[in-house]
Every structure is written in structure tokens, then in C-alpha cells.
Design a protein that fits this description.
MftR_C; 2 domains; Tetracycline Repressor, domain 2; Arc Repressor Mutant, subunit A; DNA-binding transcription factor activity; HTH-type_TetR-like_transc_reg; mainly alpha; Homeodomain-like_sf; globular; single chain
């Protein structure tokens, strides 16, 4: 099989995935997440139900299509932090970058999408699960980065505090969105909230998991 053929197949897969996601999002916002079925989405996207579930094993994944980045992002940010940078400093920097670009991973989504999530107990529960998974991933990285012993509680305790900050700020973005504020207004308000939250954590965990300078 040629490289060109493989590339075309991958492109087709990405296009199919995006088509399914786009139709699902439209239907969710029109009808509500819980009232939209996989069959509805398959019909709209002109694919088989099995095709939908092959690309999106969970129905929630169709609505929360940034879930993988949501879970893995903070852990990766800590793993890739700069020399002399603590876990808190790295996450703070990354969060403010997300605010500047109105990143959907930290909650920027638009009023209709935010309302769709808020009106679905299933999606609200799934977001709670994703927050938990994100803290688990962050715990593993912190343990590895600090050389913690298997039963050392400190990585979990720090990950819970850092993850809690992200939970609070995600909720703030959603609240402002549901209030009908523009992305620019939300960014300004959440940036101020983030400064308060991260400043509050600084005395407790600001010196934790500081990457050693090289050279």
C-alpha cells in the first residue's frame, strides 16, 4: 500500500469523523442531548450506526469531543514544564494561554452549547468524571516527576488542589457563558478569577515539583 493511499484513507477517516461530530452537535443543540439518539445522528450524517459508534464509543464523546485533551492536557503541561518552573507555574501559564485564545478545553463554548450541557444530567455527570480522570492523570505525572514512593499521598493531594482550581475556573467560564457574556468579557472576568485562585495556591504548592535547571 502506497503512502499516498494511506494518507487518503486517513484523510477520509478524519472527514467522516468531523462530519459525524458536526451533525451530532447540531442535533444536540436543536433537540437536546438526551433526546437525540445515535440513530438520529447516523441518519443525519448518512452513515451506519456502527460507524458512529466506531468513531465515538460513548454518546457523550460526540458532545464533548475535546475530552481527550481535557483529561491529558494538565498532565502533559506539567511533564513538559520549563527548567526552574513548578507544576503550579506551568499550569498557570497554560491556563492563561487558554484564556487568551478562548480555548473550548477550558470551557469556552458559546451560549447554546453551554445550555445544552447544563440541561443534560448525563453530560454534567460525564464532565465530573472527566475532571476526576484529569486529576488521576496529573497525579501519575506528579508522582513520576518527583520520584514519589507508591503510597506517597502528596502527589494526589497536590493534583487534587490543582485539579480543583481547574474545576472552579471551568465552572466560572460556563456560568459567564450562560449569562450571555461575550468571549472577550468572559476572558477578562475569568483571568481575574484565575489570578486569585492561582495566587491562593502559591503558598501551599508553589514550590512543589520544580524542574531542575539543566547545565
Amino acid at each position: 500500500m502506497s503512502t499516498e493511499t494511506t494518507g487518503l484513507r486517513e484523510l477520509k477517516k478524519r472527514e467522516t469523523r468531523q462530519t459525524i461530530s458536526d451533525h451530532a452537535t447540531r442535533l444536540f443543540m436543536e433537540r437536546g442531548f438526551d433526546r437525540t439518539t445515535i440513530a438520529d445522528i447516523a441518519t443525519a450524517a448518512r452513515v451506519a450506526k456502527m460507524t458512529v459508534t466506531n468513531y465515538f464509543p460513548r454518546k457523550e464523546d460526540l458532545a464533548l469531543d475535546h475530552h481527550e485533551e481535557f483529561v491529558a492536557g494538565p498532565a502533559r503541561t506539567v511533564a513538559e514544564r520549563e527548567p526552574g518552573e513548578s507544576a503550579l507555574a506551568a499550569l498557570r501559564r497554560a491556563f492563561f494561554t487558554g484564556v487568551e485564545r478562548h480555548d473550548p478545553v477550558i470551557g469556552f463554548s458559546g451560549a447554546r452549547f453551554a445550555r445544552m450541557i447544563a440541561d443534560s444530567p448525563t453530560l454534567v455527570a460525564r464532565i465530573r468524571d472527566l475532571h476526576d480522570l484529569r486529576e488521576d492523570a496529573l497525579t501519575e505525572v506528579l508522582a513520576a516527576e518527583t520520584g514519589a514512593e507508591p503510597y506517597d499521598i502528596l502527589p494526589r493531594a497536590v493534583a487534587t488542589q490543582l485539579g480543583g482550581a481547574h474545576r472552579v475556573l471551568f465552572t466560572e467560564v460556563q456560568r459567564h457563558t450562560l449569562d450571555g457574556r461575550s468571549n472577550q468579557e468572559i476572558a477578562a472576568a475569568v483571568a481575574e478569577s484565575a489570578r486569585q485562585v492561582f495566587d491562593l495556591l502559591e503558598p501551599a504548592v508553589g514550590g512543589y515539583a520544580v524542574r531542575r535547571a539543566t547545565g
